[in-house]
TrEMBL record:
Its EC number is 2.7.11.1. Residues 21-435 form the Protein kinase domain. Residues 188-199 have a biased composition (Low complexity). GO terms for biological process: regulation of mRNA processing; spliceosomal complex assembly. This is non-specific serine/threonine protein kinase. It comes from Absidia repens.
Length: 437
């Protein structure tokens, strides 16, 4: 990707924007850019510089991202959600050997929520921390939706970053970086492998497999025990499988060098946690005609899969998926294709299994891809046998902490309404008791 139209090859110590910024460390990278720690000689502090790939497509995308970020920066600094969205400080263009690169300057942030999930070994981040994070993301989303007229469209743990309150001290203590100094042996993380392992064989109906086991001659109780054991084993496999995919999908540096807890596992460290919604690279205006494919698979809403017109409510679907994942360490939806149905089929089936048959005719009959998934009665075409299981049961199975299960179910349910007209907005969710108890 370090070629004409691709990433800019950065060398530690490089100066950008007529000597204003000096590059010091690589902070991360994505499909469109590399992100660097730099010293800003004008404001005399450290910043994060996102250097975008140079081809016309990426440049155009970056310009749209800047327009959205400028709207966010200028709309209402007094809004409580303002501080929960990463703010653009500056932007410019940089000419390099691979072309002209748009550069965006942000305040330096720390690790992503995915790294937090990993830190807690995929067993769930403590509820007290998740409640804080959820409240702040809701404030940020409300600001984006209602005040800025913006839909994020790619809300997921990777795109919510932890604020680092004392960047300058941290850089001094941990890396011995003072002001514009650079580290003599700066780590180079040019590991840009991104195996998008998206094609995993899946099986929809787990009971069918359980039924294939030879249970002849066993008592009812023995059968029950065997079934339970097999189920547990399969779920275990499924779980580790999805984590493996996860690691592959995110070759990115998720455990940031700017982990503000310095690896401390003590929950009290997180009592000052502040998070910010980042990566507006896929965001769009609420006033636009929104029908194109958005969101990362696991966080994708039903209306998007079905090809209906979507609204800002699609972000709340993603938020519910993200909160579930923070609490349990597992994806809420992790669809797989089979020879008989597609990954999208499985995804929609899992949604219906969880939330009931509540898709309106607008979605089952009248949307662009309705006919691919549903017959004219609104029943699924390729998956006949649905295994309904409600959210409360799923939480009971996966949420180790297990506290306030009823309240938590009640909190998540409005965000997971299949009909986005019935789905609650950020403000309504913010007042729910689960966040405040
Ligand atoms: P994507 O493929 O996710 O769309 P992208 O090219 O749009 O990637 P970002 O997601 O904005 O890039 O940033 C890439 C990575 O850089 C992030 O995952 C994060 O690790 C790091 N990063 C981004 N912004 C900051 C920041 N302000 N401070 C510290 N690190 C950052
Ligand atoms: Mg990103
Ligand atoms: Mg992006």
């Amino acid at each position: 990707d370090y070629k004409q139209g691709g990433y800019h090859r950065v060398i530690i110590g490089d100066m950008l924007q007529d000597g204003r910024y000096k590059i010091q460390l690589k902070l991360g990278w994505g499909h469109f850019s590399t992100v660097w720690l730099a010293y800003d000689f004008r404001s005399e502090r450290h910043v994060a510089v996102k250097i975008v790939k140079s081809s016309r497509r990426f440049t155009q995308g970056a310009k749209e991202e800047i327009a959205l970020l400028e709207k966010i920066h200028s709309t209402n600094p007094n809004s409580p959600g303002y501080q929960h969205v990463a703010q653009l400080l500056d932007h410019f263009e940089h000419d390099g050997e691979n072309g002209t690169h748009v550069c965006m300057v942000f305040e330096v942030l720390g690790e992503s929520l995915l790294s937090l999930i990993k830190r807690f070994k995929y067993r769930g981040v403590p509820a007290a921390v998740v409640k804080k994070v959820a409240m702040q993301v809701l404030l940020g989303l409300d600001y984006l939706h209602r005040e800025c007229g913006i839909i994020h469209t790619d809300l997921k743990p990777e795109n919510v970053l932890v604020y680092v309150p004392n960047v300058e001290t941290l850089l001094q203590e941990r890396f011995h970086i003072h002001g514009p100094d650079t580290l003599p042996n700066a780590p180079d993380n040019n590991n840009n492998n991104n195996n998008n392992n998206d094609n995993v064989d899946g099986d929809h109906d787990k009971t069918a497999i359980l039924d294939q086991v030879d249970t002849k001659g066993l008592t009812k109780n023995q059968k029950k025990k065997l079934r339970k054991k097999l189920k547990k084993k399969m779920e275990g496999q499924k779980r580790s499988q999805s984590h493996r995919n996860r690691e592959n999908k995110n070759g990115q540096i998720t455990s940031s060098i700017l982990d503000f807890t310095a690896g401390d596992q003590n929950i009290s460290v997180y009592e000052n946690i502040v998070v910010k919604i980042a990566d507006l690279g896929n965001a769009c205006w609420t006033k636009d005609e929104c029908v194109h494919l958005i969101q990362t698979r696991e966080y994708r809403s039903p209306e998007v899969i079905i090809g209906a017109r979507w609204t800002e409510k699609t972000d709340l679907w993603s938020l519910a998926c993200m909160i579930f994942e923070l609490l349990t360490g597992e994806f809420l939806f992790d669809p797989r294709p089979s020879s008989k149905y597609s990954k999208d089929d499985d995804h929609i089936a899992q949604m219906i299994e969880l939330m009931g048959d509540k898709l309106p005719p607008r979605l089952t009959l009248d949307s662009e891809f309705s006919h691919e998934f549903f017959d004219r009665h609104g029943h699924m075409k390729h998956i006949k046998k649905l295994r309904y299981r409600d959210l409360h049961d799923v939480l009971e199975e996966t949420y180790r902490d297990g506290h306030q299960l009823d309240l938590l179910t009640e909190f998540l349910t409005p965000m997971l309404q299949l009909d986005d007209n019935d789905r609650a907005g950020a403000v309504a969710i913010m007042n729910h008791a689960w966040l405040h108890e």
